[in-house]
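dumping this here before i forget
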Amino acid sequence: MNPLFPAASRMAMVCALASALASSPARAESAEAAPANLEPAAPQAPQQPDPESLVVSGPAPETRPIFALGSETYFINPVLAIAGGLHSENLLLNPNPQRESRITTLAMARFGVEGRLGPYITFRSEFERNIRSHGSGIWEGTASMSVRDQVLRLQRWDTTVEAGIILDPASVDFFSAHTGDVLMADKYTRDPLLYSGFNRGQGVQARYSRWGFTAGLSYTEANPLSTSASFMVGGSFGGNSRFWERPLGNFRNGQPDDDIHFRVVSPSLSYESSYVEAKAAVQFFSINYQASRKDDPLLNGYNARANLKLKLKGLLPLPFQVTPFINAARVQNDVLNSAPGYANQILNTPFDALSLSGGLDIFLSGRSGVGVSYVQVRDRTPFFVPASGSTPSSEPIVSTTQTYLNVGATWWLIDQVALGARVAHHTLSTKDRPEFDEKDLSGFLTLRLVL
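structure:
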């Protein structure tokens, strides 16, 4: 990015795109008083774990939550998540050998409101004070803010229709709940979701659920910065930048470049029961690289995704649940020839990326427990070498591999507050270019509140 642009503007734009954003775990429900003529109620079963709720915000509850204002079916409820603690980063290998390791004190918050307007309509409005790297999300005490869910939902006859800034649940990989201590906002947990096609952004979507199955269709069409799905698009765009970085390379009146248009259409099918969850989706996308001209070609691509999670329950001295999971995503898209003199031409070789991940959680007597996850992202990016003398033109491939390993533990003190500890490891290797390799090891110790 151009260093002449204001830092606060750059941070806000990037965070609005890439922040992997978290929703709240299951809220505490108000207990109903037992009738006087009945025996005391048996102890309630431990609250069932819901890892995906760290990211996916469902509709507001059908009845008024404990912190809400209003009647039973017409109410407004606060949304609040606060996380703070310590992050120790140890750089084991870096292209800049002078760069130093450091310890950072973490602080971030998410806040807003959600509510229900009768039996069929719910809404949610949420913002975030960004963490960014090493606390760079603030400047002179002013938080760098980003917008999260801004969604209106209509629900009836097993059908849900949403509009606004939405999140497609079928675009979210299964992950370890015990690695969500920083609300899925650090690079070790956020970036793997983004590479695999995590799609939060302005758009519309519809879902129909029956017998445990849900058929969905999401649609967005706007600037690439309007949706996090643009993060998965590969190739070189304007000065060797990634696609989502390209609008940030040219500001007009303080706003990012509006010449690029991005369309995503994603049908999906998912299934959920007490023992298994499965999701499959295809994200078809099209890129108009120069909306101000009609002679440039469209760049097309797709991302095919599949996810599976098992829920194995048992009872030893304490009730427990083990949830192994696997995810796979394959991205392929056209790449524009960025060599001088080859304007409006598409390379014969497409960008290709494969994201594979897996892990498991162990929950003991509710949501506390330990978990592990491993992600590998492999991509092949073509570039163009013009013909020279008797040497014909060619399209060499740059191959990179990234791995993310997280091992975490969570102890929920009460339904809304948890202690977390995690070790995270990241590697980046470029084939035949070891000077660009990276390797780091981080530790997190956190305290978080989620209403």
